[in-house]
Known about the structure:
Elements: E1 8-11, E2 17-23, E3 30-36, E4 42-48, E5 53-61, E6 67-74, E7 82-88, E8 94-100
Antiparallel strand pairs: 1-2, 2-3, 3-4, 5-6, 6-7, 7-8
Amino acid sequence: SDGEGGRDIVLAPDGSAHVLTWRDPDFVGDVVVYKVNTDGSIAWDHTYDQGRHESALAMEPSPDGALLVMAKGNTVANIYTDWLTLKIDAQGELLWAQRYNELLSNYETPY
């Protein structure tokens, strides 16, 4: 189902909001960011599939106007989580994504 619980919100200078959540189609989660206009309408939503199961954790604005998204994820064969960071621009386009510490038998979760 879509929008498996809102995780974070960042207000933009123009009064719009970016809402962080995730989608879980077929039990394989993907990070999702919505941009919500000041009138409550949805300007856009983007899904960020990093090829494994990911769930959203937090989002922060960066000084250059982009958004930094923190998430955790795992492989199908491994129950242990990796730490993920994504940087998206103001239009929701993915600028870069990084998976950290892909060690087996170890949890790497950002706090």
